[in-house]
Amino acid sequence: MLSPQQAQDRAQDLVERARRAGADAADAIYAANASEGIQIRLGKLEDVERSESEHIALRVFAGKRSASIGSSDLSPAALDELAERAIAMARLAPEDAYAGLAPAERLSHAPWPELDMIDPAEPTPQTLRALAEEGEDAARAVAGVTNSDGASASAGRGVFALATSHGFSGGYASTNHSISVSVVAGEGQAKQRDNAWRQAHHAHDLPSAAEIGTLAGTRAVGRLNPGRVKSGPLPVVFDPRVAGTLVGHLLGAISGSAIARRSSFLLDKLGAQIFRPGTVIGEDSHRPRGLRSRPFDGEGLPTRTGNLVEDGRITGWLLDSASARQLGLEPTGHAARSGGGSPSVSVGNVHLGAGTLSPSELMADIKDGIYVTELIGQGVNGVTGDYSRGASGFRIVDGQLAGPVAELTVAGNLLAMFAELTPANDLEWYRAINVPTLRIDGMTVAGE
């Protein structure tokens, strides 16, 4: 794996080869990853996995025609061939009026924010195995846990670099550590499964493996003997482990490509009151050690810190350069690159601002409702906002959790759901999308 500076140099070299081959403009990305993971099941070693990948991708422009191509061969001869093939492909491609590099005057330049995404310590396979064993042992020690799907611990490192023909060159590295435990509780047909996992750039930011294992075991036992609920309109409370998916649907709906295609349920809602007044959804791409922190976007533009939703109103769309041109707007630094091809849209670390009530206070006046801990399926229509997903969790009776429930569906429309959304005060900062417990009144629950 190359260092960030070596990766920048290699990407810049490929861009220069493309220009010599006849490209009007070009950009190149280098991406490499290496990881090692250990999986344990029932106290025995089940799998040892080591993976390494290295890839360079080139995008070239011939007028308004473009093409992308990639290779894992970084030799000079292979890079020359890559450039020549890309140019030949571009000259045969159809014209795209919105194709092109990001505006040169908006490019980001060093020095970039210090994001602290590199943990210098590299755990040995023995250390990873010990962590996995510790996590599984803690989960299996929870009364009611009867079997294990396994526990794993992994560590890895990645490097990303981008170079363009109009003056941008940058690169950065990051590390990642994760622990995961999944166990089974109960016997026979009454078995239930659940899990817990955490991921961080620095190993010291993770809870202990025993904490993660105990949480997995407690969750699995808590699901035993689920009941059913009657169908009808009910308040639904989303646990933070699933509440972030609601913000994810918002992010997809405000992406520039969805707006440009007119395929978003939030079309023409810019500036409208979508959430309750006071609601804030913020983005921080420069948060130290954040899972989605990055110094620049996939086109070399500055990433940002700001609010995507302010006082309940959407502040703008998420735009790469192509969708910005299509909409007659400016790009917002949300371009992402993965492997090759044209940029897509991605965000930095996102959070939904906490409310003033604790989760128990948020549920206190609910006579009959549902507390959701798991969502199943993909029943969300991004064009209409219609929402329908399988769910399981707990029944809420007189403001208290009153036993597990399963085999139910929660449904509504995202616009109506956003308007009714009330956050609790238990916001924690360790996910890519950080969201407190959320309450939404008036959803339709389908059970028996």
From TrEMBL:
Q: Name one Pfam family in it.
A: PmbA_TldD_3rd
Domain of life where this protein originates:
Bacteria
Tell me the segments the record calls region Disordered: 285-305
All copies of the Metalloprotease TldD/E central domain together span 119-224
**Residues in Metalloprotease TldD/E C-terminal domain copies:** 232-447
- Which InterPro entries would you find in this protein's record? Metalloprtase-TldD/E_C (IPR045569), Metalloprtase-TldD/E_cen_dom (IPR045570), Metalloprtase-TldD/E_N (IPR002510), PmbA (IPR047657), TldD/PmbA_N (IPR035068), TldD/PmbA_sf (IPR036059)
Which segments constitute the Metalloprotease TldD/E N-terminal domain?
26-90
State the family it belongs to. Belongs to the peptidase U62 family.
This protein's name = TldD/PmbA family protein
Q: Which organism is it from?
A: Novosphingobium organovorum
